[in-house]
Every structure is written in structure tokens, then in C-alpha cells.
Amino acid sequence: MSQGPLETFDLELDGATLVGAEVGEGLPVVFLHAGVCDHRMWLAQMDAVAQRGWHALAYDRRGYGESAADDVPFSHLEDLEALLDAADIHAAVLVGCSMGGGLAIDFALRHPGRVIGLVLIGTSVAGAPWSATQEERFVEMAEEDAWERGDTETLNKVQAHEWLDGPRAQSGRVGGETRKLFFDMNGKALAKSPLTKGEEPDEAWARMEQVGAPTLLLVGDEDFTAIVDRHETLSETMPNAFAMVLEGTAHLPSIEKPELVSRLVVEFLDALAGEPDTEED
User: Fold this and answer.
1) Distances (CA, A) of 220 to 17, 174, 212, 254, 267
2) pLDDT-derived band of residue 3, with 50, 70 and 90 as boundaries?
3) Residues 6+ apart with CB under 8 A from 144
4) Which of 3, 8, 59, 173 has its CA 20 to 30 A from that of 82?
5) Which domains does the chain have, with CATH numbers?
């Protein structure tokens, strides 16, 4: 069943123009990209969701992809709220990876009645602890060195090792068109002028038991050990979470194993379809 072509949209905000894409009709599913990607990391999942009868939306946040922004005070959380309001969406399923997952959590804590369900992949959580193995620390040090030298080409390569291959895996483990896509997405973000006035999110780590929306937690076993440990803690802390570890996958399974992630997201949406509406804020 065809849902038609992907349609792009622009959202004008104070000091920014957010660029996104949508496809399909039905209940909304909003995809939130990782901090080394843009909305293109979700194209396969958007198509799968639309084919299943849902309305898929994704956008490039300030500082990413095709979106444009001045260095003015802003909040990613308020931008997401503005996007939902502009699209006349009261409640949606939020699908987020890494920093996008952290944004989804922040939104669910502030607006629980606007969240039908969550899919969190290798998610960040404001205030979560971080530690690294010695092997992982070597990769982090290479990233810090490239960042300090302003060498964005090397930084892009090191971050591909960190987040696409996995910090303990062989560099170049994931190749072909997937690696080219990563370099293009992350390269666009690295080429943009820094945004220095973004609002820091409130601490969320100690409040995760308050996130009551049905949640699918996914993490790749090649991801940072701290993120895998975080996944395990969240699976025990969040009251309505179902957790899975994806073998042989790092931080960005939506582009590394798109068919698998699409299937898992669609199955989760199918399970949600018969549930009652969430309560109002």
C-alpha cells in the first residue's frame, strides 16, 4: 500500500527555520534524530510507519541538516512543542535516538498527556552517569584532540568510529552507503556555526520512574558500555518499558539495520493501537 511521496515542510521560529519531512496519514509518530545525524537517519522507518497507516514526521533540529538558526536563546523542547502545535498534533508517539531520545524524555516529563508512547534507542538522559572503558577512552581522546584543533574532517571520521562502528569495534566496520550517509549528516552539523545559547535540559535521570508512557527501549551491544548500562537501568526503572539489546549493532541501528528497527517500531505501534488515550496534562 503506497502512502505517496515524502513531503517537506518548513517551520519559522524566532531566529530559526526548521526543515522537516512527513509522509502518511493517521496517528502521528514524530522521529527525533541523534546528535551526529539529521532526519534522514529515519527515512526507512518513516516509510514503514506510513505503510502501516500512521503519520510519520521528522525534522532537523537547530544546528543540523537543512535547518537554519541564528545564535539566539532557544530551547529544543520548546521547538518540539511549537512543531506539534503548528501541525495541530495534540499527542504523538515519539521515536528518539541518543540526544533525540533525551529530548523525547524531556517532553514526556513536561507534557505527559501529549505522549502516546516512546521508542528510545541508545538514549541520552539528562543527568545520567557516564564512564568509559580504557579502550573507549582512547577514542574519546582522539575526538577531543580533533575538536580542539578544529579539524572537522578528522572529527567526522573519529565520530563515525565512535557512533557508527562502535567505540570497541574496528574502525570502518560499517561501510558503503550507510557510512557515506553518516559522513554527510554529521558533516553538515560540523560545518554549521556553533549555537551557544541553547537551554540546558532539566535533570531527568532521577525522575525516570515518572515516565509512564508505554516505552520500547533499544540499544546496540556495540554501543558505549555506559549507554548499554543505562539501557539496563531504564528497563528496570521505567514502569511500562520493554527492552531489547540488538546484537552486532552500535549507536545508530536505524541506519545500520533499518529493516530490523522498522519491524520493531511497527510492532510496537501495532501493540499501542488498541490502548486507550493518555490523560490530559
Assistant:
1) 33, 14, 24, 11, 18
2) low
3) none
4) 3
5) 7-128+195-272 (3.40.50.1820), 134-191 (no CATH)
Residue 154, class by beta-carbon neighbours within 10 Å (0-12 exposed, 13-18 middle, 19+ buried)? middle
The number of helices, as runs of H, and strands, as runs of E, in the chain is 9, 9
Which residues fall within 8 angstroms of residue 145, CB to CB, at 6 or more apart? none
Which H/E stretch holds residue 55?
strand 55-60
**What 3-state DSSP class applies to 170?**
coil
Cell reading at 118: 516512546
C-alpha cell at 27: 496517528
Task: Determine the Cα–Cα distance for residues 247 and 83; give it in Å rounded to an integer.
Answer: 34
> What tens digit of pLDDT does each residue of 76-103 get?
999 999 999 999 999 999 999 999 999 9
Cell numbers 520493531 correspond to: 264
Cell digits for 233? 537501568
How many other CB atoms sit within 10 Å of the CB of residue 85?
Answer: 11
Q: Can you tell me whether residue 12 is helix, strand or coil? A: strand
Q: Please name the amino acid found at residue 272.
A: L
User: Residue 133 and residue 193: Cα distance in Å, rounded?
Assistant: 32
Q: What is the mean pLDDT of residues 231-254?
A: 98
Chain segment 175-201, per-residue pLDDT in tens: 999 999 999 999 999 999 999 999 999
